[in-house]
Structure formats: C-alpha cells, structure tokens
Amino acid sequence: MASVDVEDESILASIFKDSFPENWRENPDFAAYLSELSSYGVEKLNREPERLSEERAQILQQTRELAFSNYKIFIRTAECTKEIYRDFGLVESSVSRLLDKLPGFGEKCRGFVKEAEEIGASRRMNSLTLNRHTEILEIVEIPQLMDTCVRNGYYEEALELAAYVKRLEKKHSSLPVIQGIVNEVRQSAQLMLNQLLQQLRSNAQLPVCLRVIGYLRRMDVFTEAELRIKFLQARGTWLRSILGSIPTDDPYFHITKTIEASRVHLFDIFTQYRAIFSDEDPLLPSSGQMVNESAIFHGWVVQKVSEFLQTLETDLQRGVGGRLDSLLGQCMYFGLSFSRVGADFRGQLAPMFQRVALETFHKAIQETLSKFQEDMNMYTLISAPAVLGSTIPQVSPSSQPGTLQPPMALLDFPPLACFLNNVLVAFNDLRLCCPVALAQDVTMCLEDALVKVTKVILVFHRAEETAFSSRERELFLQFCSAFAEDMVPFLNRCLQVLFPPAQVAQILGIPPTQVHKYISLGCINMNMVLEPLEFILPKKELPPVGPDTSSDLETMMPPGPQKGLSAAAESSSVPVEDQKGDVPVQYTGSTSTISSEETPTENTQVTPEPELT
C-alpha cells in the first residue's frame, strides 16, 4: 500500500491536528483507510461514524462468542505456553551448565590420560624394584640398624654404618630415598653424640674418657679446640652436680665437703685431660694454629678456681664458727695439690681469711662494748667487806712460767672484768687464724673500743658524780685506776703476744726497737685512750711502752689450769704466703681469760655485798 503523500498529510494534519498518534502514519492500513475516506462524499462521511460503531459492536460480539465457545482451548494454550516457556528455561540452564563443565571435563580427561601414563611407568618401576628387592631392603634398613646399634652401645658398628652412608650419599645424592636414609642416619648419629657426651657428664674413669673421645674424633663433628671445650664442659657439669648435692645447711660442713670433692675430682679431671690431649708447648700456640688450645684448659682451671673461691667467700660470710684454722689448713692443702698442675691459688686465700678474721674480731668487740654499756647502766659503786681482788694471791711469773697473768684487781670491778674476759675470748678466737697483716687493723679496732669504754666511764661519772659519797668517790677512783693501770697495759701485752714486735719488725725490715714508733701497729696508744680520764686519775707518770716487750712472751708454754684462772699462753703458727707471694703471713697468738670459777655470777660478774651502815 502506498503511504500518505505529502499533500494528503498536510491536509490531514490541518483537519485532524493531534487526533491520532504518530506511529499510525507508518501503518499501511491506516493510509489505505485515509485514502478511502478521502474518496467519500459528504453524506457517506456523515454515516461513516455510525457504520464504524456498528462494525465495532459486531466485532466485539463475535469476539465474546469466540472466547466463550473456545475458552478451554485458550486456557490449555496458555498452560502449554507456560510449560513450554519453563521447559525452554530448564533446557537453556542445562545447556549453560554443560558448557561451563566442558572445559573442566576436558582437563580431567587430559589428567586421566597423564595419570594413566604415570601408573604405567610406576608399574614398570615396581616390577624393577621387585627384581632388586633384596639389595634395596638392605639399604632401606640401614637407619633402623643404626638406631639399634646406638641404643645398645655398639658405637663401632654405628660409626661403620655412618661412614657407608656418607659414601652412598656421594654417589646417589639426588635420590630422595637416599636423602631420607641420610637424614635418619644423621638423627641416630646425633643421638649417639648425646649419649657419648652424657657419659662424660657421669662418673667416668680415664679408660671410658679415652674411648669416648676416640669415638667423638671419628665422628668428626668437632674441631680439636671444640672437642677440648666439650670435654671440659661435660666434666664441669658432672663436677657441679657433685658439688650441688652437698647439703648447705651447715656452712662449715658444706665448704669442707666442697674442698674435698673439688680437690679429688678436679685432680682426676686434670689427669684425664692431660692423658687425652697433649700440649707440647703449654704457653705458645703452634705456627698456623688459630686457637691456642692450651689456653682453653688454663681458662677452665681459672674459672673453677674462681668458682671455688666464690663458694668459700659465701660460706665464710655465713660463718664457720671457731674452726677457721682447720678450714685454712684444708684450703692450703687444696692449693698445694693444685700447684702440681700449675694452678696454685694459695696466694688468694690470705686476704680472704684476713678479712673474715677481722670481721669476726670486730663483731666480737662490738658485742663486748654493748655488754659493757649494759653492765655500766646497772653498776653501782658499793664497797665490799672483803675485796675479791685482794684475797686472791698474785702468782709470780717465775712460779708459773709460760702464763700471761690477767690482773686480779679487776675482779673488784665486774664491768671491767667482764669486758676483759670478752676481749680475751675474742683474742683466743683470733689467735687461731691471726695473720700479722691484721696487726694495725686489730690494734685500731681495740683502740676504738677502749676509747668508747673511756667515754662510757665519763658518762657514768657525769651522771653519778653529784651523788657520790666519799667512799664511792674513792671506789670510782680505784675503778678508773684499774682500767688505766691494769686492764689497758694488759691488753697491750696481749696484742704484743698476738703480733710479736720482732716478727713485725722482720716483715717491715726495721729494727725491733723502732716498731713502737709506728702508730697502732701491735701497740695501743695509751695516751689517746687515757687522755679523757686525766682529770680523774691520780697525777702520776704513765709507764712507758717498751720497744719490744714480747721477747719473754714468745717463749711461753701453755699452762695448766689454775684456781681462779683459765690462762692459756699457747702459741700456734701456720705460715702461708700472702697474695703477692713474697711476704709470709704468720698466724700467732697467746691470750688468757679471767675465769668465772672464783666469781659468784655468770661470766666474771662480781656482785659485792652491800655496804654496812
């Protein structure tokens, strides 16, 4: 059908304007109907709307009748269309899934083909392996055999297996089976190494150590220097276990057992080391040698000596009672035994024992001062009807040779008697281990104590002076005189017994007559001690201190027991070398105490009867 030409379109646009949509213009039926309308006359055009309405009503009626008569068909058609649409959707989704899985399926097929080829190759290898089953089984069982030999202690066979596996690794290092065998054999070799080192950490004798070191050298896991270090470390671990098992409750028991165990076992370790490892030159390394192997042993010995000295220092600080001389003798014997292997440490013992002896003496003096202070706080000047000091007959040195007689006049004054007894007890403890090097320190400590005693006496005087009766003033004067004329000179003589001026002069390289010129060197500065009491004491010249008053004391012998006295003038001497090794340090001493046998109270407390009125 011809479309609407331009002229007709302009006419229709002017007549109908916007009465129909734009898309109708392209419809051929619409163009034919417009052409037909343009050919109608006026009358027919007037009837055209009515005709169209009738035709429309007729078409609607036919449509209703058609739908009413064929509605089941329409329903089935709609259902079929719906099912067909759903089936087409399922088909489309299945086809999509199939397309998605086709690449994977193709990959699986290629994998199957490849796996089938591998299975075929593996089958051929299994057939070949079956033919060589016996030879392969021997190689595969090497790790198990190696482990059995190690656990049962068959180290020779284990080393042979390890050497065979090393050769096998060089030939077939690329095979995974061989690599697995090598790894398992290395684990067994490590177990064998641990077992051998554990034997060195036990109480192994020289033959066992020689055999173990031989095995370690054949294993070739350590250099010569490392092997020496491992040996010393293992033996040191065993020694520490021995020392760690010693009870530490009693310091003296602990250190004595430590000395004994260290001396015996360390000397065994030295013997084993020198039998196993030879050092041609103990000082200089050989040419081309990077490590001075002999210095390893020397450093280990120095470390063990340092550990022992530290343990000794700790136990000495904890306190060993009055057995310092016995402990010193054991330590000196220990150091002497070490001198045979070039590790003499006796020179380091003297300062340590000097310090402990001085600390013990200083502590005893401090306790003595505290006791004297307490006694003076409770002391009263009461005259006794019979003075104890005057009732005891004086024993002349000629009748009792070898004794250092304490002044009996001190028995009339219990605080001074107790103080002297406590100081003499400290001297008796000190003389067991009394190095001459402590002469100045001990003298200064005793001087300080006597100065404090003087201050305590002055405090007592200031507190009681206003209440003194004539008798009490006389007794106090006797008290001070006994302190200045009896006790202080006696303590001075005791010091010269402990530190003989002749011996001090010999060490200092001076004449014995010049020793007294050195301040606080085995001789108390009596002027400094008694100067605060000058206004109380009677005006009389103090007895001069002779240059050497110990010539007779050095020849004294230990006396027998006497009534009222426990005099002990025995001397003991244990020569040792000091730290520098050129000055001998001698432990000497001789003191005596006032016995409490004649006194009615504990220690040397004298309680006089109350004064009669």
Along the chain, the helix and strand elements come as HHHHHHHHHHHHHHHHHHHHEEEE
Binned strand content: under 5%
The main sheet comes to:
2 strands, antiparallel
Estimate the global geometry from the Cα principal axes. Answer: elongated
Distance between the termini: 175 Å
Unreliable spans: 281-288, 384-402, 542-613
What does this 3D model show about the protein?
This protein is mostly helical. The chain is 64% helix and 1% strand. The protein has 20 helices and 4 strands. A two-stranded antiparallel sheet has the order 1-4. The chain has a two-stranded antiparallel ribbon with strand order 2-3. Helix 6 runs antiparallel to helix 7, helix 12 packs parallel to helix 14 and helix 17 packs antiparallel against helix 18. The longest helix has 61 residues. The relative contact order is 0.06.
